[in-house]
Amino acid sequence: VVLVAANPHREAEHMSPRAVDERLLGRAHEPRNERLYRRMRFIRRFEETLLGLFEQGELNGTTHACIGQEANCVAVMEHLREGDHIFSNHRCHGHYLAHSGDAFGLLTEIMGKDAGICRGLGGSQHICAPGFKSNGVQGGIVPAAAGIALASKLAGADAISTVFIGDGTLGEGVVYESLNVAALWALPLLVVCEDNAWAQSTPVSANLAGSMRRRFGAFGIPVREIDSTDVIELDDAAGAEIAALREHSGPRVLLIHTYRLCHHSKNDDDRPAAEVEARWLVEPLALHGKRLTESDRRAIDADVEAGLADVVATARASS
Amino acid sequence: MIFARELGAALRACLEKDPRVILLGEDIVDPYGGAFKVTRGLSTDFPDRVRSTPISEGAIVGLSAGLALAGWRPIAEIMFGDFLTLTFDQVVNHITKYEAMYAGQATCPVIIRTPSGGHRGYGPTHSQSLEKHFVGVPHLKVLAASLVHDPGSILDGLLAKSAPALYIEHKLLYPENLTLPQHGRVGDLLATTESALGEPPTVCLSAVPRERCELTVLAYGYQATLAARVVQRLAVEEEIFAELLVPSQISPMDWSPVENSVRATGALLTVEEGTEGWSWGTEAAAVISRTLFGRLRQPVEVVASKPDIIPSSKQKESNMLVGAERIDAAIRKAAA
Questions:
Q1: Nearest beta carbon to residue A144 from set B54, B62, B72
Q2: Buried (b) or exposed (e) across A126-152, using 16+ Cβ within 10 A?
């Protein structure tokens, strides 16, 4: 059996016009610390720009920003390679941008333009690009991620499938059906569970009985649990998990305790202000930014601003 | 050969011809070979591609979605059509969405096949015909097995396309022999077929040529088998002549064979085993009333089961479900 991505020609066609801007994704031979910072800054500013455009009435519909969770996206993508598949959820911008750098495609998609990744049909939550798919129903894409992992295994390929879920997704039954099959059939599936403490407006304590870790453990699936917003720690953890997944058969879970600093969607945040403020002190950019010199940091910030300004201008001018 | 074996042979042919075909379902491997034995023998010969799963209908169809996105051609068996409800999110929000919402950048050609229907005394949750909840789902093909359609051709047709599909197999068809049209006949009835290019045909059955028929009967699946018997008996015993149309694909519907027939007969009666109201038949009534309003002598008659649970008791079940008696009475009334 020769495995091919669906419609490879269309995907290849789709790729060509989207040159990656090194101001956003990383300059050649850039040291790791700077690259990680730049990518997180890119995602942060993309989300802030987007929320600004919504406020100005330039965008229609809804969005779910990942402000505060940028380190997870960037760290995991550091270790995925061509042929791997990524599945994401409603909060998918960071995953997509860390994977592809395609800010123009995503912004025009959210603007509803033909230039968008899915010609404006999918919008913020429904993204498809080579090796990447997202959907807006909680947990429903997890069995598809397991299915692609099965395809990879049956084809004898060494590609892995990665699916991002959140703490709230752990309420969905099909997640457990999928974990069970993935464990039984030793599928190359990495589940990245981003526990950001709140499922929309409901705290984890009101949503989840028992132990998050033991839920995965019940299927005999190894879990690496990390409570951090430090991209270096997350990068190391993701690297170790993905290396282990490539080496041994069977699914693995990277359980990241993190925090969402923004609204769930737009103007819908009733969490205690003090709680959110405390988390701003340990947000990923602040933590990791300390490892860079101020001048390097400023240079990267300026790069990202200029790159994103170009993206916004080009997107506005596109049809 | 009985339908269950024909279908098993058709699935075997798919596995042989196309290395991308993979079968997933509950209890489908040997020696058990599926609750209705359709897949018996297949896992022995294709152990990697015929796989029994845990009791997880959402995951069966969701895994199939992932396989299909990766270029495979999964055929998922849902043990009883009643359990399709557990796949509904995967069908409505995932499988049928991907190609369209991703602007054609992905296809998700999952085929789901499932035994459905009653008259077996299995009771409220193992007897239903739930396809009314799936017809009309955009980008989903819903097909119904019948004794006048070759399951091999239907599967080949689906595998030649990339649309997701639900294939409904009424349980009472499994032990029956296929009666495919041969030399313009099915048994004592005249048989013609009409089909849009590349689509499975609608089989038209009648005792006399269409021009002499006073009523068009539209039915699929096992109800088409019952309706064919009634149509034949009424022709012989009562000289009531109806033309029975048996489509294979019930959604989206190619209405042109129905319109061609109704243009000649001036009356339409639909039959389905699902519960009445908001149904396939009411859609047929809406469409034909719109396109052939001036040609209808009478309102379209829709025959369906009562809007109730399906009782386990044999007598109570047959009172509730559409059967030959109700079809007989409805045809007599419509032709009166």
A1: B62
A2: bbbbbbbbbbbbbbbbbbbbbbbbbbb
